[in-house]
Write a structure and sequence with these properties.
alpha/beta; Aldehyde Dehydrogenase, Chain A, domain 1; seven-stranded mixed beta sheet; 14 helices
């Protein structure tokens, strides 16, 4: 099958090498223009999800014993086509999720690069050959695929996050059941359509659209699913972990953050403001790496707050596909309501409102909101709870030690940033920030596709995603002893 139309209006499941309709239908809307229906999508029930899982289980032995060259060629094909079509796929992403077009095209390119990276990794699966402590005995340590992997992805990076789960799963010989978020079925379908023509055997990759209650829960509970990689909210991730580990399944979780960006008095202030703006508000603040807590040392706090307010108020909010838009719409009506409710919470708890936080009208009806900026205390809910929208707060710190303590005063630990001209402070912060990723004189959001991604504390569970470290989750280690005959 070859479709030249990634803007198809009916998105189907891909199960055991065939496209299937669902039990019911859902509708994907453009959050920039609610009159624009991106398409209808099939919704699976538990029985259809179980069919996909069985197909993956039936295909696991053949794909596990395929050659590294074949896996590399499959992944290289996928990556090459995604890169060749990055503008087209980016336009679909911007239309369906609301990310600005430049950001969306960049995400599509990143997805293609991830597949290309793991095409190379398929040829470099590590192993060891060692001498035993016993004479005449040799030891081989090899890595083998885990088996059937359930991949549950969120809506905020609908091409990149599926890519960094699907690509290593296939590279290391696992079979896949992929459930995307219901808000972005078109992006999932477009990626699956490319994968369907890559030369995989039937059942090695399966796309099942539908709700977490039906499809997601079926994947989590199935005894045929050996491992589950989930990106999403903390409550869902914790419930998934309890269910899956009770049956000894392997689990990898990425669940968000409340990331600090520390600005010290010696920092290049205007550059620090730009890092804060990008980290807090780009992608409409809808990313787990967003710097929603901006901790500023007291001597420069007032000037930083003034500059930050001016830049925030000047951001252009508009249709994701329009030239000049800096901040697209919030992804859905429910998310917009949640974001606006946190603005009200901030005001009611006594945080000082600086600007933004209002629902906006634009020429097209959509989920538009002006980015909100507060001065808050560490106790305020807007300074402690992940909002996942364009809401950020400034927090005053007495000195560097106080700023570091505030940065670490969170149950999350995904990423942390610092802006400073002091090598000593930057080095100390890199060592003592309680986060899986640290940025120095950079926005907290924005990571490379070939290095590990993940956090600490409530942000993550299990081995890291992306890069060579992905092998830890998607393979299991076997030790073999050989006595010469």
């Amino acid at each position: 099958m070859r479709s030249d139309d990634t803007m198809a209006t009916h998105f189907k499941h891909y199960i055991n090498g065939r496209w299937e309709t669902g039990v019911t239908l859902g509708v994907s809307e453009n959050p920039s223009d609610l009159a624009d229906v991106v398409g209808e999508f099939a919704r699976a029930d538990a029985a259809q999800a179980e069919s996909a899982i069985r197909a993956a289980a039936d295909a696991r032995e053949a794909w596990a014993h395929s050659t590294p060259q074949r896996r590399a060629e499959v992944l290289d094909f996928i990556g090459s086509e995604v890169l060749a079509r990055k503008d087209e796929l980016g336009a679909l992403l911007a239309r369906e999720e609301g990310k600005t077009l430049p950001e969306a095209i960049g995400e599509a390119a990143r997805a293609g690069q991830i597949f290309k990276f793991f095409a190379g990794e398929a040829l470099r699966i590590p192993g060891e050959k060692l001498a035993s402590v016993r004479p005449g005995v040799e030891v081989e340590v090899t890595r083998e695929p885990v088996g059937v992997v359930g991949l549950i992805a969120p809506w905020n990076f609908p091409l990149a996050i599926p890519a960094w789960k699907i690509a290593p799963a296939l590279a290391y010989g696992n079979t896949v059941v992929f459930k995307p978020a219901e808000l972005v079925p078109g992006c999932a379908w477009a990626l699956a359509e490319i994968i369907s023509r890559s030369g995989l055997p039937a059942g090695a990759f399966n796309l099942v659209l539908g709700s977490g209650r039906r499809v997601g829960q079926t994947i989590v509970e199935s005894p045929l699913v050996d491992a589950i990689s989930f990106t999403g909210s903390v409550p869902v991730g914790e419930a998934l972990l309890a269910t899956a580990t009770a049956r000894r399944a392997r689990v990898q979780l990425e669940m968000g953050g409340k990331n600090p960006l520390v600005v010290l008095a010696d920092a290049a202030l205007e550059r620090a403001v730009e890092h804060a703006i990008q980290g807090a508000f780009y992608s409409t603040g809808q990313r787990c790496t967003a710097s929603s807590r901006i901790i500023v040392e007291a001597p420069v706090f007032d000037r930083f707050a003034s500059l930050m307010r001016q830049r925030t108020a000047a951001l252009v909010v508009g249709h994701a596909l329009e030239r000049g838009t800096q901040i697209g719409p919030v992804v859905s009506a429910d998310q917009l309501a949640q974001d606006l409710s946190y603005v009200d919470i901030g005001r009611s708890e006594g945080a000082e409102w600086l600007c933004g936080g209002e629902a906006l009208e634009r020429p097209t009806r959509g989920h538009y909101m002006s980015p909100a900026l507060f001065i808050a205390q560490p106790r305020h809910r807007i300074a402690r709870e992940e909002i996942f929208g364009p809401v950020a707060c400034l927090i005053r710190a007495d000195d560097y030690e106080h700023a570091l303590a505030l940065a670490n005063d969170t149950p999350f630990g995904l990423c942390a940033g610092i802006c400073t001209d002091s090598l000593a402070r930057a080095t100390h912060f890199k060592r003592h920030a309680q986060a899986g990723m640290v940025m120095v004189n950079l926005p907290t959001a924005g990571v490379d596709p070939h290095v590990p991604f993940g956090g600490r504390k409530a942000s993550s569970h299990g081995p890291r995603e992306q890069g060579r470290h992905a092998v830890e989750f998607y393979t299991t280690v076997k030790t073999a002893y050989v006595q010469a005959a």
